[in-house]
């Protein structure tokens, strides 16, 4: 048994969660630059094949899963992890090394970046599959694409990694003694079985902590869990005893709960117990609240989800009920003779 005025802080109701105050910018991360070549990208490769007539050809090539492209006349070159300018230099050097050109003129341009398709489900305003552009594959970008969290959202987010083609971060560009760009040491991804995994994120802590959240990849599924708040129950000397949903975004106190139940059914009702089950505790605690003190601003205890508010009988309320019952029966018995 505790009194509302001296309740230990550990037993107090948790403050309401305001999702609108969460700074989701903490979920952003520095993704791969749009200038860095990755598997799935489409490049335009142009080369001058006849210097006398200045004849040039342009061929679109797609970067394979192992990070390589096939250049006409030159052959297979690994370019994943390189920026476009570095890949261009590498292809020119390779054409000289392989004896294709003595003075090559090969240019490379990014034609189409591979986009990341992510499915966002749960408590968001626009669930579904969304395309995230290169350089914007963070959890924040996925939530923004889903038009943000809805009013039922909680703080728990689960990311299921289902992509069988994992993109490793771009490696450093290696150069030879003469300054030429050497082939990128791009490592192909592991199998689909080893790529599977689950990342759980708590938005309330992730937005303020320095913990790194992995970027999203093709096929990943983001699930935003709903908040499950247990209702409060109001019983005893009230006009409408019932259970009432706990508001997800604002605080509710003892007097608010009594108002939801239509107020006290006895004018002399004063004694209230709040029955609260603490997490991990074998038995609930009881918190004594005075209605008069609550009206004066002292005992108006903040309620927690799952609390039971019971307005108790006292000698004064019992006496009042007896008097009311006596007059009711007396008046009911005399009316027929009037």
Key phrases:
single chain; about 350 residues; alpha+beta; Outer membrane lipoprotein wza fold like; wza like fold; 3 domains; 6-stranded mixed beta sheet; 7 helices; 16 strands; rod-shaped
Walk me through the structure.
- There is one protein chain.
- By secondary structure, the chain is of the alpha+beta class.
- It folds into three domains: 2-16 and 230-318, Outer membrane lipoprotein wza fold like; 19-33 and 114-165 and 190-226, Roll (Outer membrane lipoprotein wza fold like); 42-112, wza like fold.
- Helices cover 18% and strands 27% of the residues.
- The strands form four sheets. A six-stranded mixed sheet has the order 1-15-14-16-12-13. It has a five-stranded mixed sheet with strand order 8-7-11-9-10. It has a three-stranded antiparallel sheet with strand order 3-2-6.
- A hairpin with an 8-residue loop joins strand 14 (271-276) and strand 15 (285-290).
- It is rod-shaped.
- The chain starts with a strand and ends with a helix.
- The model is unreliable at 164-173 and 181-195 (pLDDT under 50).
Layout of helices and strands:
Elements (H helix, E strand, L loop, with lengths): L1 E2 L38 E9 L4 E8 L5 E4 L3 E4 L5 H14 L8 E7 L3 E7 L5 E5 L6 H7 L7 E9 L30 H4 L1 E6 H4 L14 E6 L5 E5 L5 E3 L9 H7 L10 E6 L8 E6 H5 L12 E4 L3 H20 L4
Parallel strand pairs: 1-15, 7-11, 12-16
Antiparallel strand pairs: 2-3, 2-6, 4-5, 7-8, 9-10, 9-11, 12-13, 14-15, 14-16
């Amino acid at each position: 048994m505790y009194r509302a005025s001296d309740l230990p802080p550990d037993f107090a109701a948790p403050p309401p969660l305001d999702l609108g105050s969460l700074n989701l910018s903490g979920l952003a991360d520095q993704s791969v630059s749009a200038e860095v070549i990755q598997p799935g990208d489409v490049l335009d490769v142009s080369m001058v094949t006849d210097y006398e007539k200045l004849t040039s050809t342009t061929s679109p090539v797609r970067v394979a899963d192992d990070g390589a492209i096939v250049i006409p006349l030159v052959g297979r070159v690994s370019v994943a992890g390189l920026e476009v300018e570095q890949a261009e230099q590498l292809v020119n050097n390779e054409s000289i090394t392989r004896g294709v050109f003595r003075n090559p003129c090969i240019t490379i341009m990014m034609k189409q970046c591979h986009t990341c398709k992510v499915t966002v489900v749960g408590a968001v305003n626009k669930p579904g599959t969304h395309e995230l552009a290169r350089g914007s594959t963070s959890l924040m970008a996925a939530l923004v694409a889903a038009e943000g969290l809805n009013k039922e959202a909680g703080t728990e987010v689960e990311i299921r990694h289902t992509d069988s083609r994992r993109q490793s971060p771009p490696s450093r560009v290696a150069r030879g003694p003469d300054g030429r760009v050497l082939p990128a040491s791009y490592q192909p991804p592991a199998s689909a079985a080893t790529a599977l995994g689950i990342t759980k994120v708590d938005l309330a802590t992730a937005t303020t902590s320095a913990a790194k959240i992995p970027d999203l990849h093709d096929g990943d599924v983001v699930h935003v869990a709903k908040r499950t708040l247990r209702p409060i129950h109001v019983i005893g000397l009230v006009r409408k005893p019932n259970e009432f949903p706990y508001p997800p975004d604002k605080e509710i106190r003892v007097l608010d709960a009594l108002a939801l139940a239509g107020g006290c059914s006895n004018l002399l009702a004063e004694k209230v117990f709040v029955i609260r089950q603490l997490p991990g505790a074998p038995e609930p605690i009881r918190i004594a609240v005075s209605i008069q003190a609550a009206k004066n601003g002292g005992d108006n205890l903040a309620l927690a989800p799952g609390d039971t508010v019971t307005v108790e009988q006292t000698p004064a309320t019992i006496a009042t009920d007896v008097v009311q019952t006596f007059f009711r029966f007396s008046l009911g018995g005399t009316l027929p003779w009037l």
